[in-house]
Amino acid sequence: MPRGRLAWITGVLSTLWLAINTLFWCLLLFPVSLLKLALPFAAVRRRIDPILNGIATAWVSCNTGWFMRIQPQAWDIQGNQGLRYADWYLVNCNHQSWVDIFVLQYALNRRIPLLKFFLKQQLIYVPVIGLAWWALDFPFMKRHGKAALRKNPDLGRQDQEAARRACAKFSLVPTSVMVFAEGTRFSPAKRAAQGSPYRHLLKPKAGGLAVSLNAMGARFRSMIDATIAYPDG
Q1: 153 FRET partner, CA 20 to 30 A, in 10, 65, 160, 218?
Q2: What is the rounded CA–CA span in Å between residue 102 and residue 105?
Q3: Cβ neighbours for 168, distance < 8 A, ≥ 6 positions apart
Q4: Residue 204 — φ and ψ, nearest 5°?
């Protein structure tokens, strides 16, 4: 079969698999999340959140199985041993591609609690998965531009407060808070525009790390500093 046609078929089947897998696990997730919404008490959350996280972890496991089928190349993963699933972690990573999330999930799934990360506010409107992120307490950030923040500094404090509230929820059950310190995906053009002193990184933004540490510093067992490298670009 021609390579182009095989790639097209793989893409179609992968999209179908991801959609079906997401819908299946969300059908289990949403009824439980409604119970949490109806009973927003800490004692209830301590019992329901592990169930929600367990459903999401199973969803990630299925996604990882798909990922390994289409990307069976040799992996070189170092330093993901000796971790504890029933603990709190702060995870920091470089950011190059939307695939980074799948890579981190593959390397850390079931070794540490479910990865939860900061999202753009607009992503809550993504069909099905946006509601799933909301049900799992992923923090949604508006990420105002520099001009807007200079005009109205309170906008930045609103995002900080949203992150603080999310981290307060994370403190109830073991959670892994993941931060892309660069704030956006790396590209040579962005690196040049920033005047970044780093060869493969943009200038870091400390906001997400600072909020997480201020809200949950006493809970975190340690920080996992992850670096993803794609040898072929």
Answers
A1: 218
A2: 5
A3: 215
A4: -70, 150
Radius of gyration of the chain (CA): 19
Mean pLDDT across the stretch 78-88? 90
> How many Cβ atoms sit within 10 Å of the Cβ of residue 35?
13
- Over residues 10-37, the mean pLDDT reads 91
pLDDT in the model for residue 87: 92
Cβ–Cβ under 8 Å, residues 94 and 201: yes
pLDDT at site 33:
92
What DSSP state is assigned to residue 112? B
Residue 194 contacts residue 66 (beta carbons within 8 Å): no
Tokens of 9: 């078929």
Strands (E), 81-146: 89-93, 115-117, 119-120, 140-141
Q: What is the pTM of this model?
A: 0.84
Could you count the other beta carbons within 10 Å of the beta carbon of residue 29?
23
DSSP helix/strand/coil, 86: coil
> In the 8-state DSSP scheme, what is residue 222?
E
Tell me: pLDDT of 185 over 70.
Answer: yes
Q: Is 58 helix (H, G, I), strand (E, B) or coil?
A: helix
